[in-house]
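Hi Q.,

Before the meeting this afternoon, I wanted you to have the S-adenosylmethionine prediction in hand. No need to reply - just skim if you have a minute. The sequence and ligand are here:
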Amino acid sequence: MQITEDLPRRTTFRENYTPGYSTNATAFMSSRTLESHAAFVLPLLDRGQEVLDVGCGPGSITQGIAEHVLPGRVTALDRDPAQVAHAARLAEGREQINLRYVAGSAYELPFAAASFDLVFSHALFEHLSNPRGALAEMRRVLRPGGLIALSSPDWDSFEMRKSTPAAEAAIRDYRDLQERNGGDTSAGGRLVRLLQEGEFGLIRQGQRFENYESPMRIATYLALQLDAAGNAGAAHALIDWSTEPGAELLGCWKHVIGIKWNR
Ligand SMILES: C[S@@+](CC[C@H](N)C(=O)[O-])C[C@H]1O[C@@H](n2cnc3c(N)ncnc32)[C@H](O)[C@@H]1O
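Predicted structure with the ligand bound:
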């Protein structure tokens, strides 16, 4: 395992990353696996591939990818150096020598053109203020014929059971917060068009619903972000909703697979 800290040349970001890097947010993401959250990528993985994971966060999905491509290598990139260091620590002892961790920006990927067979990104595009710019960078570092696999939530299609007017208002507040921070809570629903406009061939698209096993856990994750932004009322409304018998939140994740044509 190797850690490099190739910090982006541009140090300011036009967007604010809404979840932040609290213990809660990092633990929430660490529970994701390749199988639970990105099974759509499994058929693309092959021994010997060079893979880039952009916005790896704590890197639990990245680790799964690395197991499938050995002796190929996975590069895990995140804009937050502490998150990169955390991901590297979590992978320690897993005997995965084919992982390297890099701090850097999706807008200025610190890699040569045509370096990767597959670029993967899960739960990043909803936080980007310039998705086209990030996609163009991903295209640059892909070899001709290389594949891209992206997944993001689409909050236009989520489902909430036993919702209350206050909880629904809190979800609207959460969406507003993410959008004020430069993100796009409908990003998942825009991935197909983004790929096509970004000169990728669309191979496949799909969606899945994540039924959060513990309504309290997803409510707390969202509530902490609302509270940190000064909206304690919305935070409390979500926690109250999550204690109702039958409360459920089904998040909608959309994914796309594209190919960089040979030109
Ligand atoms: C929601 S987390 C997803 C982490 C992981 N991919 C997962 O699904 O569990 C998004 C990650 O993208 C990173 N990120 C946000 N904006 C970025 C950017 N412009 N360049 C690189 N990473 C970025 C954040 O630091 C965060 O760790």
